[in-house]
Amino acid sequence: MSTNALEKALWLIGTNPAEAARFRDNPRGYADGFRLDEAEKAIMAAMNVGAMARRDANTLLLMAAFIAVRGPQAMADYMQSMNTPA
Amino acid sequence: MATIIGGFLMPHDPLIPSMTDAPPPAQRDAVLNAFAAINQTLKERDADTVIIIGDDHYALFGPHCIPRCLIGIGDVEGPAEEWLGIARVPFLTNEPLARHIMTSGFADGVDWAFAKAITVDHAIAVPHHYAVKSNPKLRTIPVYLNCGVLPVVDSRRAQAIGQSIRRAIDSWPGDERVAVFGTGGISHWVGAAQMGQVNEAFDRRVLGLAEQGDVEALMAIGDAEILETAGNGALEIKNWICAMAILGDVRAEIMAYEPIREWICGCGFAELKAA
Asked: Which of A20, B85, B125, B170 makes an SS bond possible with B79, Cβ 3.0 to 4.6 Å?
């Protein structure tokens, strides 16, 4: 498990539109580029922010990355994921 | 010696410029009027330099490097975020005083990180937009404390950094007239499951302690308690603690407080006055 690597990926996606575009084009391939275990790659590729938050990923990063990928109009989905129990 | 001509506590909520009309008009106007009053006060007191204390939101600084405290000593522009609805502009800066605060801090035990060219985020840019930018002579020195990424700066360290800044101002041979902004807070949950909640009781407790000038009690509120009861955004009261330490023995006079769900934040304003 690597919260550090999760945060590295989320920071890149959230701060660089080209990285967000790369993620949107191939989420699983993007996740494969980081030192993540299989479960982490799965939740990252699905942009499952609730699951990543439960692994202690910083919520500032989660929101920025989510918006970069899905757009601000999808915030209801973000909140639903954050409030969905494991 | 430079002179401190005022200190203020205020929010830096990015939704204020980006969703200005979302709250009820009375709440919106209370916030905008408080910013305007600060702007006017600085003009009346002939301020020429403002130190704005804010915090990064895990955007300017990434997992590769999280400075505990950083000062902008060179070029400053902002905001970084296009979605704020604020045009990015270069800021007027006071590079000599900023460098003095840094070097004085080094001798004082503060290992500043420093930025020679920085594009500031909303933490600095929102207060600048509403309370600084219209003043053609007012120069900005940005200071970032890490309030956003665990482990955050200790509240007592935030105070010590403020005290070091004060010693630097007092030892500066220039005749600047300096204002201080402590920005951020009060309760809000950024990106968290509770986002949208506001803990008005916590906010009024913080404002009450500031009114009493009880910085010790503010510092005694532990990070775990803040995170649990008021959200990650409330850790930004460390910026307030730093500002209060620059001013010295002060009490806050509350200018406005509004718990604004639409802006997902308890927005508090105060002027710091000699106790």
From this structure: B125
